[in-house]
UniProtKB/TrEMBL annotation, chain A:
Keyword Oxidoreductase recorded: yes
EC number per UniProt: 1.5.3.1
Family (UniProt): Belongs to the GcvT family.
UniProt keywords, alphabetically: Oxidoreductase
Residues annotated as domain FAD/NAD(P)-binding: 170-361
UniProt keyword annotation of Transcription present: no
Residues covered by the GCVT N-terminal domain: 599-870
Protein name in UniProt: Sarcosine oxidase subunit alpha
InterPro entries associated with the record: 2Fe-2S-bd_N, FAD/NAD-bd_sf, FAD/NAD-binding_dom, GcvT/YgfZ/DmdA, GcvT/YgfZ_C, GcvT_C, GCVT_N, Sarcosine_oxidase_asu
A molecular function (GO) term: sarcosine oxidase activity
Gene Ontology biological process terms in this record: tetrahydrofolate metabolic process
From TrEMBL, chain B:
Region (Disordered): 1-22
GO molecular function: sarcosine oxidase activity
Keywords, in A-Z order: Oxidoreductase
A Pfam family per the record: SoxG
EC number(s) stated in the UniProt entry for this protein: 1.5.3.1
Species, as recorded: Gellertiella hungarica
Protein name per UniProt: Sarcosine oxidase subunit gamma
From TrEMBL, chain C:
Pfam families attached to this UniProt entry: SoxD
Species, as recorded: Gellertiella hungarica
GO BP: tetrahydrofolate metabolic process
Enzyme class: oxidoreductase
Protein name: Sarcosine oxidase subunit delta
Highest taxon in the source lineage: Bacteria
EC number(s) given by UniProt: 1.5.3.1
GO molecular function: sarcosine oxidase activity
Keywords: Oxidoreductase
InterPro entries, A to Z: SoxD (IPR006279), SoxD_sf (IPR038561)
C-alpha cells in the first residue's frame, strides 16, 4: 500500500463509514470524503485513461479544476458521465465507473494510440482525413466518434426533477473560503441581505486544508465558527454545493445548486438540482486561485498531484497519495506542502526547487535541490520515481507521489465573462480581473493575494466598500490574526526544459508542449488559433489547469510577454452544468402552458377528440358509433349544421372591450374598413392591416353603446392584436381618450349554427329572435331565461343562420348542456374545428391559412371594403404602393379537380398546363382544402396570380413531395349559396318559439 | 340571478374533496368577485379616488390607471357603487368568471413563490398590500401580498389549472396542500 | 440567463416579461410624403451602440416602454412610458 488513509486527522467523520463501488469493486470511505479522497484512501490512484493517447491518469487536483479524474456516477437512467471525482461528495451506495477504457482500466486496448502518438499531433485530423471526400461521412467520422469522447450518455429519460428559482440580495459572495467568509461576516453583521454560495459541500475553502491558526483557533475551526455565526443571521443565506457559473447583464448571476447529488435515491419531493438566478446589488468574487502544474517530461503519471491538492488530501481528508512524496516547486507553496506531509508523518523524498535560492525553510532533514528540474518520471500506471537534472547531472529519486507547484492563477472567470479582458500583472506574474463594473469586486486569492491573513483582511475591506456604497456602516473592524509560516511567491517556470518524454499542458485533451510548438510553426500563433488548432483548453475543464501555462509557453516560444499573448475568451459556464437543470421544470407536461376552454368539460362529455391549437386544447371532432376517421365524424357534423343545427365552442377567440369617447375613432384607425358609423346594437366584419398593408387579423366589431365596443380576434392572433392595439394607443396616439381590456377569459362563447338555430335558441334566450327583432348582424346584451346575463351576436362563419352566444365562463358548461338539451328534438350536434373548417371553405371564408402575412385585403377579395376615403388607418399609406396593386398579385380563388377522385391538398403549387415545374413558372399555391360533404367532391381555396381574371381556366395542381400532378378548374371561392340565402334560416320562426320568445 | 345554471370553477376536479391542510396551504376562492377598472387617459387620479372604499389588499395594481378589485365573494353594492362612480371615467368590466383567485399562506410561501415568480418578495421589498402583474410559471398573473406570510394570486381562467399544478409541484418539498375556501 | 429592465410602473423585471419591437419610430402624419412613410415602414438604422427601442411589458403592466440602451453592451440609459415619450415628442415638435 502506498496511498492510504492516515491514522488520524482530517475533517472526515471516521465514525460514519460509507461504502461505494469503483468499477464493480466494493470500497469504503467516510462521511466528508470526496470520491477522490476515498479512492486515494483505497490506494486507487489510477482512475482513468486519457482522451487521445489513453494514457493512465490519476487524480491531479482536489477541486473543480480537475482534468483527469472524470468518472461515470450512478447506474441506469441516473448514470452521469464525466463527473469530477474531486468534487463528487461520497455517499452510501455510490456507484462509480472509469471511462475511456476497454475492456478494463488496467488493460486498455486503446492505449495502442500511444504508440501511434508521433502521428497524432495537433492538426492530425485536419491533415489526415481530407481525402477522399466521400470517406469523411462513411468511414472517418464514425471511426473517430467511436474512438473519441469520454463517458457515454445513458439514452434513458432522466427520472429526476429539476427546478429553477430566483433569489435577490444586497450582496452575493461567491466562494466560502477565507476572503468570502470574512466578506459575508462583515456584510451580514451590518444587516445586509447576503447570499454566500460555494461549490463545495463544506464551506471554508483553503481554511479547511490549512494548519494555520486564525484568531487563536485552528483554521478549519475558524471556518466552522464563521459558518455557524452566518447561519444564525436571518439576513444571510448560505448556499453550499452551489456553483455560481455565470455573471450576466444587470448583475444577474446564474448558479447551479446540487440539492440531491449526494444521495443514492433522491426523494421525488425535491429536485436533484436547482438553477438559481441571483439578482444582486453588489457581488464579491472570493473565488480563490487555481494552482498551476509544472510542465515537465512525464508530468501526467498517476501519483503526480498539485502541491495544494496533496495538502488538501492530507489535512482535510486525512489521506495521503503516497508514502514517500517528492516535491517539485517554483516557489513557496511546495515548501508548505512538504511541512504538511512531514507533520502528518509522511516521508518527503526531496524538494526540487527551480529557483537559484530561496528563503523558504524546508522541513528538517529534507534535502532541497535548487536550480533543479524534473526531466522525466518512472513507472507505468503508478509513479515509482523521478529523474532530475541539475547542471548536467542526472539523479533518480524514488518516490510514489510527487507534489508539484508552478504558482497560482487567480480565478477571475466570472469577472471576464461579459467581454472585459483579463489584465496581466508583471509584478505577480498572473492574470488579474479587469475593472469593469463598480458593483463587482474580487477579494482574496482571486484578487492575487497570497496569504490567509491578506485574504481575510481583503474580504472584510471589500465588504465595507459595499456597505458604504449602499449607505450603511460596518461594525468596527474585527480582522483576526493569522499565525502561519511565511512562504515566498513563485518565480514562474512555464516549461521545464530538457523533457525526455511528453510534457502535458492540457491533461484532459492530451495536449503537450510540442503541439503548441507545432501550432506556432504552422502560424497559428494567436492564442485563440493555438487553442483551436491544438484543442488546448477546449475540454470540459475549459482549460482551468492549462490555459495560463499555455499562454506562458506560447509567449516564451514567441519571445514576447504573456500580456501580448493574452488569454482566450472566458464564457459561461464556469464548470459544466447539466442540461437537466437548465431545462428546469420545463419538460414533459410542464414544458408549456395548457389553455383550457370553459367548455372543455362540455366537449369531454360529448366525446371530443382534442387538438392542440397554439396553447389551447380545442375540440377537433366528436366521433360517434362506428365512425373510424375524423372525416366521417366531421362530414356528419357539417351535414347536421347544414340541415339542422350544431353547437361549436368558439371561446378561444380573443375578446376585447373598447371604451371611451374616442373608441370609435380608435377602431376606425385600426381597421381598414369604416367603423365610425357602426350603429349601436350591430356587429360588422373587420379587417386589421399591418402598416405594410398586409392583413394582420380579422374578426368582428360590435357596438354595445355609443362609446362601448366589443371586438373579437382570431384565436391565434388574440395576444398579438391586443399588443398591436396597445402599441398604437400608447406609442402613437396617446391623445385618444380610449381604454380597452381583454375579456377573453371572462366569456364562454359558442356558435349555434343551422336552420334550426333560431328555434333552439328561442327556448334559451329571453329575447325576440325573429328577423325583425334580431336581424342579421345584431349584437346585444341579453338575458337567458332564468336571468343570466349574456351577449348574443347574429353572425355566421358557416353561411347558415347562426348566432354566437357569450355567457360568463363559469356558466358556460351548464349553458352549453342546456342548449344541447333544448336542441335535442331538432337534432343539434356538437361540431369541432374540422367541421368548422369545412363549413368555412365551402363558403370561401378565409383564415390565417390564407391571411399568411403576404396577403393584402385586395388579394383576399376584400379590396372594396377598405375605407380609402378615411383620412388615416393602419396600412393605408402602403396599400396603394406599386407592387401591392400589381396586376399579377396572387388572388384568392376556388379550385375544383377535373377528376373528382383527385383530392387537392394544401401546400401544392399551381402551374400552367404544360409548364415545367420551376420557381419561375410558379402560379400560386393551395391554402386550404377539403372534400365538400354537400357537393360530394374535393374543393380548395388557393392564391393564384391574377386569379380573379382566370375563372374557368384549367390549371395544374403540382406537389412533388406527395406525388400529385393533376388538372383543376379555377372557380370563385364560394362553393355553396353564393346568394347568402341560407343566412335567413327557415322562412319563419315556429309559432311555438315565437310564443316562448315573447314571454 | 343565474337561473338554473350551475357554477363551475376551473379547478373543479383538480382539488380533492378532503385535502387535509399542512402549514403551507393554498386556499382557492370558489366564487370570488373580480372587477377590472381601467381609467381613461387623464382620469387615472379621479378613478383612483372612486376606489377609496376598497381595502388595500383587495385592490390590485395592474398598470398605470388600471386595477383589479378582488373580493372573496360577490358584493353587488360595491360593484354598483364602482360602476356608478367610475363608469364614465373608466372601463369597468366584470372578470369574476375569467379569473381564479388563490391564496398561498405559510412559512414557506416565499420559498415556493421564488420558484415561480421573479419578484423580490422579501418582507422589506414587498409590503402587505403591494401587488403587480408578473411572470408566473410560464403565464402572467397578479401576485399580491395580503398578510405576513400570505399571498394572493389572480390567474386567468384558461391557464388556472396549469398554473395551479405548477404551484403545487413547486410546493411538494414543503408538503403544500390545497382546498377550496369553505 | 436573464437580464433586467426597470419598468417605470413595475420596477426591476426580467427580460422574459417583455417583448421587443425594435427601434423607436414615430408614425408620420397621414399627409407626409411617400418617402417618409416608406422609411417609417421599411428602413431601420440598426446601430451598433446607443438606440431607443420599444419594449412591451407584456406579462406585467402591458405598457409599451421606450428603452434607451446600448445594443453592444446592453447598458440601459433610461426607460420611459411610450405614451409619455410620444407626448413629449409631439410637444417638442410644436415648440
Amino acid at each position: 500500500m502506498t496511498a492510504s488513509r492516515l491514522s488520524s486527522g482530517g475533517l472526515v467523520d471516521r465514525s460514519r463509514p460509507v461504502s461505494f463501488t469503483f468499477d464493480g469493486k466494493s470500497l469504503s470511505g467516510f462521511a466528508g470524503d470526496t470520491l477522490a479522497s476515498a479512492l486515494i484512501a483505497e490506494d486507487r490512484l489510477l482512475v482513468g485513461r486519457s482522451f487521445k493517447y489513453h494514457r493512465p491518469r490519476g487524480v491531479l487536483t482536489a477541486g473543480s479544476s480537475e482534468p483527469n479524474a472524470l468518472l461515470t456516477i450512478g447506474t441506469g437512467a441516473r448514470s452521469e458521465p464525466n463527473t469530477r471525482a474531486t468534487v463528487q461528495e461520497l455517499y452510501d451506495g455510490l456507484v462509480a465507473k472509469s471511462q475511456n477504457r476497454w475492456p478494463s482500466l488496467d488493460f486498455d486496448i486503446g492505449a495502442f494510440n500511444s504508440l501511434l502518438s508521433p502521428f497524432l499531433g495537433a492538426g492530425f485530423y485536419y491533415k489526415t482525413f481530407m481525402w477522399p471526400k466521400a470517406f469523411w461521412e462513411k468511414v472517418y467520422e464514425p471511426f473517430i466518434r467511436m474512438a473519441a469522447g469520454l463517458g457515454k450518455l445513458t439514452m434513458e429519460s432522466d427520472p429526476d426533477r429539476y427546478e429553477k428559482a430566483w433569489a435577490h440580495c444586497d450582496l452575493l459572495v461567491v466562494g466560502g473560503g477565507a476572503a468570502g467568509l470574512s466578506a459575508a461576516l462583515t456584510a451580514g453583521r451590518a444587516g445586509l441581505r447576503v447570499i454566500l454560495a460555494d461549490e463545495d459541500f463544506l464551506l471554508g475553502g483553503s481554511l479547511n486544508a490549512s494548519r494555520a491558526a486564525v484568531g487563536g483557533v485552528k483554521a478549519p475551526d475558524f471556518a466552522a465558527n464563521a459558518v455557524s455565526e452566518l447561519s444564525s443571521l436571518a439576513n444571510v443565506t448560505l448556499m453550499p454545493r452551489t456553483t455560481v457559473f455565470g455573471w450576466f447583464d444587470d448583475m444577474v448571476f446564474g448558479a447551479a445548486e446540487k440539492v440531491q447529488k449526494h444521495v443514492a435515491e433522491p426523494s421525488h419531493d425535491r429536485p436533484v438540482e436547482r438553477l438559481w438566478r441571483i439578482v444582486a446589488k453588489h457581488a464579491i468574487l472570493a473565488t480563490g486561485a487555481i494552482e498551476r502544474p509544472l510542465v515537465f517530461g512525464g508530468n501526467d503519471k498517476p501519483g503526480i498531484l498539485t502541491a495544494s491538492a496533496v495538502s488538501t488530501y492530507v489535512n482535510r481528508f486525512g489521506v495521503t497519495p503516497g508514502s514517500r512524496v517528492a516535491v517539485f516547486t517554483s516557489g513557496g507553496t511546495g515548501y508548505r506542502t512538504a511541512h504538511d506531509l512531514k507533520a502528518a508523518g509522511i516521508e518527503v523524498a526531496a524538494i526540487i526547487d527551480t529557483r537559484d535560492a530561496a528563503a523558504d525553510r524546508a522541513p528538517d532533514g529534507v534535502k532541497v535541490h535548487y536550480r533543479g528540474a524534473v526531466v522525466d518520471t518512472m513507472g507505468g500506471k503508478r509513479l515509482t520515481g523521478i529523474i532530475t537534472e541539475r547542471s548536467g547531472f542526472e539523479e533518480k529519486i524514488g518516490c510514489d507521489a510527487l507534489a508539484m507547484s508552478g504558482g497560482w492563477s487567480p480565478v477571475i472567470h466570472l469577472a471576464c465573462q461579459r467581454g472585459a479582458k483579463p489584465v496581466w500583472s508583471a509584478e505577480k506574474q498572473v492574470f488579474l480581473a479587469p475593472e469593469s463594473d463598480p458593483r463587482l469586486a474580487l477579494a482574496g486569492a482571486a484578487a492575487g493575494l497570497e496569504t490567509l491573513g491578506e485574504a481575510i483582511a481583503d474580504g472584510a475591506a471589500k465588504a465595507k466598500a459595499v456597505l458604504s456604497a449602499l449607505g450603511k456602516t460596518a461594525a468596527t473592524a474585527d480582522v483576526p490574526e493569522v499565525e502561519e509560516q511565511d512562504f515566498a511567491g513563485h518565480q514562474p517556470v512555464w516549461y521545464v526544459g530538457g523533457a525526455r518524454s511528453k510534457a502535458f499542458v492540457d491533461y484532459q485533451n492530451d495536449v503537450h508542449v510540442k503541439d503548441l510548438a507545432l501550432a506556432q510553426r504552422e502560424n497559428y500563433t494567436s492564442i485563440e488559433l493555438t487553442k483551436r488548432y491544438t484543442t488546448s483548453g477546449m475540454a470540459t475543464d475549459q482549460g482551468k489547469i492549462a490555459n495560463v501555462n499555455a499562454t506562458g509557453i506560447v509567449a516564451s516560444m514567441r519571445g514576447v510577454d504573456p500580456a501580448v499573448v493574452g488569454t482566450t475568451t472566458f464564457r459561461p459556464f464556469y464548470t459544466p452544468v447539466s442540461l437537466g437543470v437548465i431545462a428546469g421544470t420545463s419538460r414533459d407536461e410542464h414544458g408549456r402552458p395548457v389553455r383550457r376552454s370553459p367548455l372543455h368539460g362540455w366537449a369531454e362529455k360529448n366525446g371530443a377528440v382534442f387538438v392542440e391549437a397554439g396553447l389551447w386544447y380545442r375540440s377537433s371532432y366528436f366521433p360517434k358509433g362506428e365512425e373510424k376517421t375524423w372525416r366521417e365524424a366531421a362530414h356528419r357534423e357539417v351535414m347536421a349544421v347544414r340541415k339542422a343545427a350544431g353547437l361549436c365552442d368558439v371561446s378561444t377567440l380573443g375578446k376585447i372591450e373598447v371604451f371611451g369617447p374616442d373608441a370609435a375613432e380608435f377602431l376606425n384607425r385600426l381597421y381598414c374598413n369604416p367603423m365610425l358609423k357602426l350603429p349601436v346594437g350591430k356587429a360588422r366584419y373587420g379587417l386589421m392591416l399591418r402598416e405594410d398593408a398586409m392583413v394582420h387579423d380579422d374578426g368582428t366589431v360590435s357596438r354595445l353603446a355609443e362609446n362601448h365596443f366589443f371586438i373579437t380576434t382570431t384565436t391565434a392572433m388574440a395576444g398579438e392584436v391586443l399588443s398591436h392595439m396597445e402599441f398604437y394607443h400608447q406609442a402613437q396616439w396617446p391623445e385618444l381618450k380610449v381604454r380597452f381590456v381583454s375579456v377573453s377569459d371572462q366569456w364562454a362563447q359558442m356558435a349555434i349554427a343551422g336552420p334550426k338555430a333560431r328555434a333552439i335558441l328561442s327556448r334559451v334566450v329571453d329575447a325576440d329572435l325573429s328577423d325583425e327583432g334580431f336581424p342579421y348582424l345584431s349584437a346585444r346584451d341579453v338575458r337567458l331565461k332564468g336571468g343570466l346575463s349574456a351577449r348574443l351576436f347574429r353572425i355566421s362563419f358557416s353561411g347558415e343562420l347562426a348566432y354566437e352566444l357569450s355567457v360568463p365562463a363559469a356558466y358556460g358548461e351548464a349553458v352549453a348542456d342546456y342548449i344541447m338539451e333544448c336542441g335535442a328534438e331538432h337534432g343539434i350536434t356538437p361540431y369541432g374545428l374540422e367541421a368548422l373548417n369545412i363549413l368555412r371553405i365551402e363558403k370561401g371564408f378565409v383564415t390565417h391559412a390564407e391571411l399568411n402575412g403576404t396577403v393584402t385585403a385586395d388579394d383576399a377579395g376584400y379590396g372594396k371594403m377598405m375605407g380609402m376615403q378615411k383620412p388615416d388607418f393602419v396600412g393605408k399609406q402602403m396599400a396603394t404602393r406599386f407592387g401591392l396593386t400589381a396586376a399579377d398579385r396572387m388572388q384568392l380563388v376556388g379550385l375544383k379537380p377535373v377528376d373528382p377522385k383527385n383530392e387537392i391538398r394544401a401546400g401544392a403549387h399551381l402551374l400552367r398546363e404544360g409548364a415545367e415545374p420551376s420557381m419561375a413558372n410558379d402560379q400560386g399555391l393551395v391554402t386550404s382544402n377539403c372534400i365538400s360533404p354537400v357537393l360530394g367532391h374535393p374543393i380548395a381555396l388557393a392564391l393564384l396570380k391574377s386569379g380573379r381574371e382566370r375563372m374557368g381556366e384549367t390549371i395544374i395542381v403540382f406537389d412533388r413531395l406527395r406525388g400529385d400532378e393533376f388538372p383543376a378548374i379555377v372557380c370563385p371561392p364560394v362553393f355553396i349559396d353564393p346568394e347568402n340565402e341560407r343566412l335567413k334560416g327557415e322562412a319563419q320562426v315556429s309559432p311555438q318559439a315565437k310564443e316562448e320568445a315573447s314571454r | 340571478m343565474n337561473g338554473p345554471f350551475t357554477h363551475r370553477h376551473p379547478l373543479d376536479g383538480a382539488i380533492s374533496a378532503n385535502p387535509g391542510r399542512s402549514e403551507n396551504h393554498v386556499t382557492v376562492l370558489p366564487e370570488p368577485m373580480v372587477l377590472s377598472v381601467a381609467a381613461l387617459p387623464g382620469e387615472e387620479q379621479a378613478v383612483a379616488a372612486t376606489l377609496g372604499g376598497v381595502s388595500a389588499t383587495a385592490l390590485k395594481a395592474v398598470g398605470p390607471g388600471e386595477w383589479l378589485v378582488v373580493l372573496e365573494k360577490a358584493d353587488l353594492s360595491l360593484q354598483r357603487d364602482i360602476a356608478e362612480r367610475a363608469g364614465a371615467l373608466a372601463l369597468v368590466t366584470d372578470q369574476s368568471s375569467g379569473r381564479a383567485v388563490l391564496r398561498l399562506q405559510g412559512p414557506k410561501a416565499r420559498a415556493i413563490l421564488a420558484k415561480i415568480v421573479p419578484l423580490d418578495l422579501h418582507p422589506e421589498a414587498f409590503a402587505i398590500g403591494q401587488s403587480g402583474n408578473t411572470l408566473f410559471a410560464h403565464v402572467s398573473a397578479n401576485v399580491g401580498r395580503i398578510g405576513e406570510d400570505e399571498f394572493e394570486i389572480v390567474l386567468m381562467r384558461s391557464f388556472a389549472l396549469f398554473a395551479f399544478q405548477e404551484l403545487m409541484e413547486m410546493g411538494l418539498e414543503f408538503r403544500l396542500t390545497a382546498g377550496f375556501a369553505t | 440567463m436573464a437580464s433586467l429592465i426597470t419598468c417605470p410602473h413595475c420596477g426591476s423585471r426580467p427580460k422574459e416579461e417583455f417583448s421587443i419591437r425594435g427601434e423607436v419610430r414615430s408614425r408620420p402624419e397621414p399627409a407626409a410624403p411617400f418617402e417618409t412613410w416608406y422609411r417609417y415602414v421599411y428602413v431601420r438604422d440598426n446601430p451598433k451602440g446607443r438606440q431607443k427601442e420599444y419594449w412591451h411589458h407584456v406579462l406585467g403592466c402591458r405598457r409599451w416602454l421606450v428603452v434607451e440602451r446600448d445594443t453592444l453592451t446592453h447598458e440601459v440609459y433610461g426607460v420611459t412610458d411610450a405614451a409619455a415619450y410620444r407626448a413629449s415628442e409631439v410637444k417638442e415638435a410644436a415648440e
